[in-house]
Amino acid sequence: TIVGLGLIGGSLGMAIRRKQLAHEVVGVSRRAATIGQAKRRGAIDRGTTSLEDGAREADVVVLATPVDLIVPLAKRAARAMRHGAIATDVGSTKGAIVRTLEGRLPNGVAFVGAHPLAGSEQRGLAAARPDLFDSSLCVITATRRTPRRALRMIRKLWQPLARRILVMDPSAHDRLLAAVSHVPHLVAFSLVNAATPRELRMVPPSFLDATRVAKSDPDLWDDILLGNHAEILRAMARFEASWRALRTTLALRDRRALARLLRRANTRRRSLNAR
Ligand code: NAP
């Protein structure tokens, strides 16, 4: 059962159905129209607007809503779930969610956190794609309290969908994501805000490339940023040091130091096996 049939929930349903990883995929949405659309797009076999009805018979319930709703909806879903069933999520932050839910759900329901590092600045079912996770990493969280059977089950769910699975502690996840996702989003938001309206009317492709993620939904992102603020502030301090180093070389017109910093970034960026 997938709760929240948006970009990630809808794509997950499509991928699970395409690879026949479940007998049945049930979708839970607030709106009947979304359920109809999800069925037409092949994301679910059937759907319901009742969280409890969707959760009741599920082996696995995946929370794919905005991060702030994951904890309350998981608690509500668990009250209706079978003993021994598993709840999991796809949220972009992990520390607080895993701390609050792991080992604390009723009915013997286990919780295992997950975060597929896939997606885009788009949102909603209309942007969902069955191949969204094909070349992605998926982080699955494990702590001393994670039941091994549940961890194996969530691994088994993601293994055929993602290119690679990384099992890590939720705080290690939040530290990593602060540096490679959350601060880059803040930089993009900030670049756009720093430009004047007149400048924004004449932007070159480099500006569009560097700021694509500023088109991400503000309502999803304020939750993510506030939910991981401590790690983000630490990662921002590292970014500011790197930014200051560039600024200093320019202020001093130090061509050699500037070239060294640019070459270092160029080599590191080219070594990434990515776009
Ligand atoms: P999205 O496209 O906006 O989808 C969110 C879904 O949650 C929508 O279908 C929305 O339903 C549903 N929802 C909202 N409130 C609900 C409620 N009270 N009960 C039931 N459903 C509710 O967002 P998304 O990008 O898929 O993000 C979902 C999760 O994935 C977030 O936790 C995010 O951190 C995580 N994530 C996102 C990305 C990314 O790149 N976007 C990548 C990895 C992980 P309606 O259609 O009815 O509004």
Q: How would you describe the overall organization of this protein?
A:
The protein has 275 residues and is α/β, with parallel strands linked by helices. 53% of the residues lie in helices and 12% in strands. The protein contains 12 helices and 9 strands. The protein has a 6-stranded parallel β-sheet, with helices on both faces. Strands 7-8-9 form a 3-stranded mixed β-sheet. The longest helix has 25 residues. The mean pLDDT is 97.
Gap between N and C termini: 33 Å
**Poorly predicted ranges (pLDDT <50, ≥5 residues)?**
none
Average pLDDT rating: 97
Shape: globular
Tally of individual helices: 12
Structural class: alpha/beta
Number of strands: 9
Strand content: 5-15%
> Strand count, sense and closure of the main sheet?
6 strands, parallel
Strand order of the largest sheet: 3-2-1-4-5-6
Radius of gyration: 21 Å
Oligomeric category? single chain
Helical percentage: 40-55%
Q: Could you state the order of secondary-structure elements as H and E?
A: EHEHEHEHEHEEEHEHHHHHH
Q: What molecules are bound to this protein? A: NADP nicotinamide-adenine-dinucleotide phosphate
